[in-house]
Amino acid sequence: MNIKINENFNHLAQNYLFSEIAKRVKAYTEKNPDAKIIRMGIGDVTRPLCPHVVSAMKNAVEEMGKAESFRGYPPEYGYDFLREAIAAHYASFGVTVAAGDIFVSDGAKSDCGNIVDIFGDNTIYIPDPVYPVYMDSNIMSGRTIKLIPATVENGFLPMPKADFTTGVYYLCSPNNPTGAAYSAEQLQTWVDFALDTGSVILFDAAYEAFVSDDSPRSIYAVPGAEKCAIEFASFSKTAGFTGTRCGYTVVPAALKAGDTPLQALWARRQATKFNGVSYPVQRAAEAAYSQEGLAQCMENISYYMNNAALMAELMREKGIFFTGGKNSPYVWFKCPNGMDSWSFFDKLLTEAQVVGTPGAGFGACGEGFFRLSSFNSLENTKEAVERLRGIL
Ligand code: PLP
Predict the structure, then answer these.
(1) How many Å lie between the centroid of ligand 1 and the Cα of residue 102?
(2) Do residues 107 and 236 touch, judged by C-beta distance below 8 A?
(3) What is the chain's percent helix, strand, coil content, to nearest 5?
(4) Considering the entire predicted model, what is its pTM?
(5) Which candidate, 178, 186, 268, places its Cα nearest to that of 222?
(6) 242 lines ligand 1 (CB under 6 A)
(7) Angle at 51 between CA 49 and CA 55, to 5 degrees
(8) Which of 27, 77, 214, 219 is the most buried (most CB within 10 A)?
(9) Which of 199, 216, 207 lies closest to 262 in space, CA to CA?
(10) pLDDT of 51-96, one tens digit each?
Protein backbone atom coordinates (compact mmCIF):
# COMPACT_ATOMS: atom_id res chain seq x y z
CA MET A 1 0.00 0.00 0.00
CA ASN A 2 1.24 3.47 -0.78
CA ILE A 3 -1.02 5.55 1.38
CA LYS A 4 0.49 7.71 4.08
CA ILE A 5 -0.31 6.93 7.68
CA ASN A 6 -0.57 9.39 10.55
CA GLU A 7 3.11 9.44 11.48
CA ASN A 8 2.25 10.82 14.91
CA PHE A 9 1.31 7.29 15.93
CA ASN A 10 5.02 6.46 15.71
CA HIS A 11 5.65 8.91 18.55
CA LEU A 12 3.39 7.12 21.03
CA ALA A 13 5.29 5.46 23.84
CA GLN A 14 4.70 1.72 24.02
CA ASN A 15 1.96 1.30 26.57
CA TYR A 16 3.42 -1.72 28.26
CA LEU A 17 2.21 -1.01 31.81
CA PHE A 18 -0.70 -3.43 32.12
CA SER A 19 0.76 -6.03 29.74
CA GLU A 20 4.02 -5.99 31.70
CA ILE A 21 2.08 -6.41 34.97
CA ALA A 22 0.15 -9.34 33.45
CA LYS A 23 3.40 -10.89 32.19
CA ARG A 24 5.10 -10.71 35.59
CA VAL A 25 2.05 -12.05 37.44
CA LYS A 26 1.73 -14.92 34.97
CA ALA A 27 5.40 -15.85 35.33
CA TYR A 28 5.04 -15.82 39.13
CA THR A 29 1.84 -17.92 39.20
CA GLU A 30 3.33 -20.48 36.85
CA LYS A 31 6.15 -20.99 39.33
CA ASN A 32 3.86 -20.72 42.37
CA PRO A 33 0.52 -22.23 41.33
CA ASP A 34 -0.85 -22.26 44.89
CA ALA A 35 -0.16 -18.60 45.65
CA LYS A 36 -3.28 -16.62 46.52
CA ILE A 37 -2.72 -13.40 44.62
CA ILE A 38 -4.66 -10.29 45.65
CA ARG A 39 -5.11 -7.76 42.85
CA MET A 40 -4.95 -4.23 44.17
CA GLY A 41 -4.07 -2.68 40.83
CA ILE A 42 -7.58 -2.65 39.45
CA GLY A 43 -8.80 0.65 38.00
CA ASP A 44 -12.22 -0.85 37.34
CA VAL A 45 -15.19 -1.06 39.68
CA THR A 46 -16.14 -4.46 41.05
CA ARG A 47 -19.50 -3.88 42.75
CA PRO A 48 -22.65 -4.51 40.69
CA LEU A 49 -25.11 -1.93 39.37
CA CYS A 50 -27.62 -0.70 41.96
CA PRO A 51 -31.13 -2.21 41.94
CA HIS A 52 -32.76 1.14 41.11
CA VAL A 53 -30.51 1.54 38.07
CA VAL A 54 -31.12 -2.03 36.90
CA SER A 55 -34.87 -1.63 37.14
CA ALA A 56 -34.80 1.67 35.16
CA MET A 57 -32.72 0.00 32.47
CA LYS A 58 -35.10 -3.00 32.32
CA ASN A 59 -38.13 -0.74 31.99
CA ALA A 60 -36.45 1.17 29.17
CA VAL A 61 -35.65 -2.05 27.33
CA GLU A 62 -39.34 -3.03 27.65
CA GLU A 63 -40.30 0.34 26.15
CA MET A 64 -37.97 -0.28 23.21
CA GLY A 65 -39.78 -3.57 22.56
CA LYS A 66 -43.21 -1.98 22.05
CA ALA A 67 -44.25 -0.12 18.92
CA GLU A 68 -45.86 2.73 20.87
CA SER A 69 -42.77 3.46 22.95
CA PHE A 70 -39.99 2.39 20.60
CA ARG A 71 -37.29 5.05 20.00
CA GLY A 72 -34.76 5.35 17.19
CA TYR A 73 -31.64 7.50 17.17
CA PRO A 74 -31.27 9.41 20.40
CA PRO A 75 -30.63 13.17 20.35
CA GLU A 76 -26.89 13.73 19.66
CA TYR A 77 -26.31 15.63 22.88
CA GLY A 78 -28.41 13.42 25.14
CA TYR A 79 -32.08 13.18 26.07
CA ASP A 80 -33.38 16.24 27.91
CA PHE A 81 -34.42 14.03 30.84
CA LEU A 82 -30.79 13.06 31.42
CA ARG A 83 -29.29 16.51 30.76
CA GLU A 84 -31.74 17.89 33.31
CA ALA A 85 -30.95 15.13 35.82
CA ILE A 86 -27.24 15.96 35.46
CA ALA A 87 -27.91 19.70 35.94
CA ALA A 88 -29.92 18.80 39.08
CA HIS A 89 -27.02 16.65 40.28
CA TYR A 90 -24.69 19.68 40.02
CA ALA A 91 -27.29 21.78 41.86
CA SER A 92 -27.38 19.18 44.66
CA PHE A 93 -23.84 20.20 45.60
CA GLY A 94 -24.38 23.87 44.99
CA VAL A 95 -23.02 24.23 41.45
CA THR A 96 -24.99 25.87 38.65
CA VAL A 97 -24.67 24.19 35.26
CA ALA A 98 -27.30 24.72 32.54
CA ALA A 99 -28.77 21.53 31.05
CA GLY A 100 -28.05 22.95 27.58
CA ASP A 101 -24.31 23.11 28.38
CA ILE A 102 -24.21 19.35 29.07
CA PHE A 103 -23.26 16.88 26.33
CA VAL A 104 -24.00 13.23 27.12
CA SER A 105 -21.52 10.68 25.80
CA ASP A 106 -20.40 7.08 26.11
CA GLY A 107 -17.85 8.01 28.77
CA ALA A 108 -15.16 10.42 29.87
CA LYS A 109 -12.36 8.58 28.07
CA SER A 110 -13.86 9.30 24.66
CA ASP A 111 -14.49 12.94 25.50
CA CYS A 112 -11.01 13.52 26.99
CA GLY A 113 -9.55 12.17 23.77
CA ASN A 114 -12.03 13.69 21.31
CA ILE A 115 -11.86 17.22 22.72
CA VAL A 116 -8.52 17.60 20.89
CA ASP A 117 -10.59 17.97 17.67
CA ILE A 118 -11.85 21.43 18.59
CA PHE A 119 -8.44 23.00 19.28
CA GLY A 120 -5.79 24.31 16.92
CA ASP A 121 -2.06 24.33 17.43
CA ASN A 122 -1.73 25.32 21.10
CA THR A 123 0.77 24.30 23.74
CA ILE A 124 -0.79 21.48 25.72
CA TYR A 125 0.15 21.32 29.40
CA ILE A 126 -0.27 17.89 31.00
CA PRO A 127 0.56 16.91 34.59
CA ASP A 128 3.02 14.07 35.17
CA PRO A 129 2.06 11.44 36.44
CA VAL A 130 -1.17 11.32 34.50
CA TYR A 131 -4.13 9.34 33.19
CA PRO A 132 -2.49 8.32 29.87
CA VAL A 133 -5.39 9.30 27.54
CA TYR A 134 -4.54 13.03 27.70
CA MET A 135 -0.99 12.40 26.50
CA ASP A 136 -1.72 9.87 23.82
CA SER A 137 -4.62 11.72 22.20
CA ASN A 138 -2.48 14.86 21.87
CA ILE A 139 0.49 12.89 20.55
CA MET A 140 -1.78 11.31 17.91
CA SER A 141 -2.74 14.82 16.81
CA GLY A 142 0.88 16.00 16.72
CA ARG A 143 0.42 18.65 19.41
CA THR A 144 3.20 20.36 21.35
CA ILE A 145 3.10 18.97 24.86
CA LYS A 146 4.72 20.34 28.01
CA LEU A 147 4.67 18.28 31.18
CA ILE A 148 3.82 19.78 34.54
CA PRO A 149 5.68 17.83 37.27
CA ALA A 150 3.57 16.62 40.18
CA THR A 151 5.88 15.84 43.09
CA VAL A 152 6.07 15.34 46.84
CA GLU A 153 6.94 19.06 47.14
CA ASN A 154 3.65 20.18 45.57
CA GLY A 155 1.69 17.33 47.18
CA PHE A 156 1.05 15.94 43.66
CA LEU A 157 -1.12 19.02 43.04
CA PRO A 158 0.94 21.20 40.69
CA MET A 159 0.09 24.89 40.47
CA PRO A 160 0.67 27.46 37.68
CA LYS A 161 4.23 28.69 37.31
CA ALA A 162 5.57 32.02 36.00
CA ASP A 163 6.84 30.49 32.75
CA PHE A 164 3.53 28.82 31.82
CA THR A 165 2.13 30.38 28.64
CA THR A 166 -1.31 30.56 27.05
CA GLY A 167 -2.38 27.01 26.36
CA VAL A 168 -4.65 24.08 27.05
CA TYR A 169 -4.25 22.76 30.60
CA TYR A 170 -5.42 19.31 31.69
CA LEU A 171 -6.30 18.97 35.38
CA CYS A 172 -7.74 15.90 37.06
CA SER A 173 -9.16 16.16 40.57
CA PRO A 174 -9.57 13.89 42.48
CA ASN A 175 -6.62 12.57 40.55
CA ASN A 176 -5.91 9.28 38.90
CA PRO A 177 -3.32 7.95 39.73
CA THR A 178 -2.38 10.04 42.80
CA GLY A 179 -5.76 10.38 44.52
CA ALA A 180 -4.90 14.00 45.38
CA ALA A 181 -7.71 16.59 45.18
CA TYR A 182 -7.35 20.35 44.70
CA SER A 183 -8.82 22.72 47.29
CA ALA A 184 -11.14 25.55 46.25
CA GLU A 185 -8.30 28.07 46.74
CA GLN A 186 -5.96 26.09 44.52
CA LEU A 187 -8.58 25.76 41.78
CA GLN A 188 -9.31 29.47 42.06
CA THR A 189 -5.60 30.13 41.38
CA TRP A 190 -5.79 27.94 38.29
CA VAL A 191 -8.97 29.64 37.06
CA ASP A 192 -7.49 33.12 37.63
CA PHE A 193 -4.36 32.05 35.77
CA ALA A 194 -6.42 30.71 32.84
CA LEU A 195 -8.49 33.90 32.67
CA ASP A 196 -5.36 36.09 32.83
CA THR A 197 -3.52 34.18 30.11
CA GLY A 198 -6.53 33.37 27.90
CA SER A 199 -5.97 29.65 28.46
CA VAL A 200 -8.49 26.84 28.72
CA ILE A 201 -8.62 24.25 31.50
CA LEU A 202 -9.81 20.74 30.69
CA PHE A 203 -11.01 19.48 34.04
CA ASP A 204 -11.50 15.75 34.56
CA ALA A 205 -13.98 15.15 37.39
CA ALA A 206 -14.43 11.41 36.80
CA TYR A 207 -13.94 10.76 40.54
CA GLU A 208 -16.09 13.60 41.91
CA ALA A 209 -18.38 11.21 43.78
CA PHE A 210 -15.44 10.18 46.00
CA VAL A 211 -14.87 13.67 47.39
CA SER A 212 -15.44 13.46 51.12
CA ASP A 213 -14.05 16.78 52.37
CA ASP A 214 -14.66 20.33 51.13
CA SER A 215 -12.60 19.92 47.94
CA PRO A 216 -14.68 21.09 44.95
CA ARG A 217 -16.47 18.32 43.06
CA SER A 218 -16.61 20.48 39.97
CA ILE A 219 -14.44 23.26 38.60
CA TYR A 220 -17.64 25.30 38.23
CA ALA A 221 -17.71 25.60 42.01
CA VAL A 222 -15.01 28.22 41.39
CA PRO A 223 -16.12 31.68 40.19
CA GLY A 224 -15.01 32.45 36.63
CA ALA A 225 -14.56 28.79 35.61
CA GLU A 226 -17.47 28.99 33.17
CA LYS A 227 -15.34 31.38 31.09
CA CYS A 228 -12.22 29.21 30.95
CA ALA A 229 -13.02 25.54 31.65
CA ILE A 230 -14.50 22.44 30.11
CA GLU A 231 -15.40 19.60 32.49
CA PHE A 232 -15.55 15.84 31.90
CA ALA A 233 -17.51 13.57 34.20
CA SER A 234 -18.76 10.03 34.13
CA PHE A 235 -21.18 7.50 35.58
CA SER A 236 -18.37 4.90 35.48
CA LYS A 237 -16.99 5.29 38.98
CA THR A 238 -20.04 6.97 40.54
CA ALA A 239 -22.56 4.34 39.49
CA GLY A 240 -20.45 1.40 38.35
CA PHE A 241 -21.03 2.13 34.64
CA THR A 242 -17.57 1.08 33.40
CA GLY A 243 -19.25 -1.66 31.39
CA THR A 244 -22.54 0.16 30.81
CA ARG A 245 -20.90 3.33 29.37
CA CYS A 246 -22.22 6.80 29.98
CA GLY A 247 -20.50 10.09 30.73
CA TYR A 248 -20.86 13.77 29.96
CA THR A 249 -18.93 16.88 29.15
CA VAL A 250 -19.85 20.42 30.13
CA VAL A 251 -18.94 23.14 27.64
CA PRO A 252 -20.41 26.36 29.05
CA ALA A 253 -22.04 28.81 26.64
CA ALA A 254 -19.86 31.56 28.17
CA LEU A 255 -16.62 29.84 27.11
CA LYS A 256 -15.23 31.63 24.05
CA ALA A 257 -11.99 31.73 22.08
CA GLY A 258 -12.14 35.27 20.70
CA ASP A 259 -15.71 35.49 19.40
CA THR A 260 -16.10 31.75 18.87
CA PRO A 261 -18.09 29.81 21.48
CA LEU A 262 -16.30 26.51 22.08
CA GLN A 263 -19.73 24.98 22.69
CA ALA A 264 -20.60 25.44 19.00
CA LEU A 265 -17.45 23.57 18.00
CA TRP A 266 -18.06 20.69 20.42
CA ALA A 267 -21.72 20.49 19.37
CA ARG A 268 -20.64 20.28 15.74
CA ARG A 269 -17.95 17.72 16.52
CA GLN A 270 -20.37 15.48 18.40
CA ALA A 271 -23.14 15.84 15.82
CA THR A 272 -20.69 14.83 13.09
CA LYS A 273 -18.84 11.94 14.72
CA PHE A 274 -21.10 10.64 17.50
CA ASN A 275 -24.61 9.25 17.36
CA GLY A 276 -25.63 9.28 20.97
CA VAL A 277 -25.97 6.91 23.91
CA SER A 278 -28.65 4.21 23.89
CA TYR A 279 -32.01 5.00 25.46
CA PRO A 280 -31.86 2.24 28.14
CA VAL A 281 -28.42 3.43 29.25
CA GLN A 282 -29.57 7.05 29.48
CA ARG A 283 -32.58 5.97 31.55
CA ALA A 284 -30.23 3.97 33.78
CA ALA A 285 -27.97 7.01 34.15
CA GLU A 286 -30.97 9.19 35.01
CA ALA A 287 -31.93 6.65 37.70
CA ALA A 288 -28.38 6.75 39.11
CA TYR A 289 -28.81 10.49 39.77
CA SER A 290 -32.28 10.15 41.31
CA GLN A 291 -32.44 10.41 45.08
CA GLU A 292 -32.99 6.68 45.55
CA GLY A 293 -30.45 5.66 42.91
CA LEU A 294 -27.73 7.95 44.19
CA ALA A 295 -28.23 6.74 47.75
CA GLN A 296 -27.68 3.17 46.52
CA CYS A 297 -24.64 4.20 44.43
CA MET A 298 -23.15 6.00 47.43
CA GLU A 299 -23.31 2.76 49.42
CA ASN A 300 -20.89 1.28 46.91
CA ILE A 301 -18.68 4.37 47.01
CA SER A 302 -18.61 4.17 50.82
CA TYR A 303 -17.63 0.53 50.57
CA TYR A 304 -14.64 1.41 48.35
CA MET A 305 -13.77 4.41 50.52
CA ASN A 306 -13.68 2.20 53.60
CA ASN A 307 -11.13 0.02 51.78
CA ALA A 308 -9.12 3.11 50.83
CA ALA A 309 -9.17 4.32 54.45
CA LEU A 310 -7.72 0.98 55.64
CA MET A 311 -4.81 1.38 53.24
CA ALA A 312 -4.30 5.03 54.19
CA GLU A 313 -4.26 4.05 57.87
CA LEU A 314 -1.45 1.58 57.19
CA MET A 315 0.60 4.30 55.44
CA ARG A 316 0.10 6.60 58.42
CA GLU A 317 1.08 3.83 60.83
CA LYS A 318 4.28 3.17 58.85
CA GLY A 319 5.08 6.88 58.39
CA ILE A 320 5.08 6.51 54.61
CA PHE A 321 4.35 9.56 52.43
CA PHE A 322 1.07 9.09 50.54
CA THR A 323 -1.68 10.98 48.77
CA GLY A 324 -5.29 9.86 48.24
CA GLY A 325 -6.94 7.41 50.59
CA LYS A 326 -9.72 9.97 51.00
CA ASN A 327 -11.55 11.72 48.12
CA SER A 328 -10.42 8.90 45.87
CA PRO A 329 -10.42 5.12 45.42
CA TYR A 330 -6.62 5.25 45.09
CA VAL A 331 -3.74 5.38 47.54
CA TRP A 332 -0.49 6.65 46.03
CA PHE A 333 2.58 6.15 48.17
CA LYS A 334 6.35 6.38 48.16
CA CYS A 335 8.07 3.04 47.71
CA PRO A 336 10.03 2.17 50.86
CA ASN A 337 13.83 2.46 51.10
CA GLY A 338 14.11 4.49 47.89
CA MET A 339 13.09 1.50 45.75
CA ASP A 340 12.07 2.13 42.16
CA SER A 341 8.46 1.31 41.41
CA TRP A 342 9.03 -1.87 39.36
CA SER A 343 11.40 -3.32 41.97
CA PHE A 344 8.76 -2.64 44.60
CA PHE A 345 6.15 -4.26 42.34
CA ASP A 346 8.29 -7.43 42.25
CA LYS A 347 8.85 -7.35 46.01
CA LEU A 348 5.15 -6.98 46.68
CA LEU A 349 4.28 -9.78 44.28
CA THR A 350 6.88 -12.26 45.45
CA GLU A 351 6.86 -11.52 49.19
CA ALA A 352 3.20 -10.63 49.77
CA GLN A 353 1.42 -11.94 46.65
CA VAL A 354 -0.20 -8.53 46.23
CA VAL A 355 -0.38 -6.86 42.81
CA GLY A 356 -0.40 -3.07 42.51
CA THR A 357 0.48 -0.54 39.83
CA PRO A 358 4.01 0.88 39.54
CA GLY A 359 3.93 4.68 39.48
CA ALA A 360 6.51 4.85 36.67
CA GLY A 361 3.78 3.57 34.33
CA PHE A 362 1.96 6.91 34.68
CA GLY A 363 4.93 9.14 33.81
CA ALA A 364 8.52 9.87 34.79
CA CYS A 365 7.46 11.71 37.95
CA GLY A 366 5.65 8.56 39.07
CA GLU A 367 8.98 6.73 39.44
CA GLY A 368 9.53 5.66 43.04
CA PHE A 369 5.77 5.65 43.76
CA PHE A 370 3.06 3.02 43.75
CA ARG A 371 -0.74 2.99 43.31
CA LEU A 372 -3.11 0.73 45.19
CA SER A 373 -6.78 0.64 44.33
CA SER A 374 -9.75 0.15 46.64
CA PHE A 375 -11.89 -1.48 43.94
CA ASN A 376 -11.79 -4.83 45.69
CA SER A 377 -13.69 -6.70 48.38
CA LEU A 378 -13.30 -5.70 52.02
CA GLU A 379 -11.95 -9.19 52.81
CA ASN A 380 -9.25 -8.95 50.13
CA THR A 381 -8.35 -5.42 51.16
CA LYS A 382 -7.97 -6.41 54.81
CA GLU A 383 -5.84 -9.37 53.84
CA ALA A 384 -3.70 -7.23 51.49
CA VAL A 385 -3.19 -4.62 54.23
CA GLU A 386 -2.03 -7.34 56.64
CA ARG A 387 0.41 -8.70 54.09
CA LEU A 388 1.69 -5.20 53.28
CA ARG A 389 2.15 -4.48 56.96
CA GLY A 390 4.65 -7.35 57.02
CA ILE A 391 6.84 -5.97 54.27
CA LEU A 392 6.62 -2.19 54.52
N1 PLP B 1 -10.75 9.98 33.53
C2 PLP B 1 -10.02 9.37 34.48
C3 PLP B 1 -9.11 10.19 35.31
C4 PLP B 1 -10.10 7.98 34.66
O5 PLP B 1 -9.36 7.38 35.60
C6 PLP B 1 -10.98 7.24 33.85
C7 PLP B 1 -11.09 5.78 33.99
O8 PLP B 1 -10.40 5.11 34.67
C9 PLP B 1 -11.71 7.92 32.88
C10 PLP B 1 -11.58 9.28 32.74
C11 PLP B 1 -12.57 7.16 31.92
O12 PLP B 1 -13.84 7.07 32.34
P13 PLP B 1 -14.98 6.42 31.44
O14 PLP B 1 -15.20 5.04 31.94
O15 PLP B 1 -16.14 7.33 31.66
O16 PLP B 1 -14.55 6.44 30.00
Answers:
(1) 18
(2) yes
(3) 45, 15, 40
(4) 0.97
(5) 186
(6) yes
(7) 105
(8) 219
(9) 199
(10) 999 999 999 999 999 999 999 999 999 999 999 999 999 999 999 9
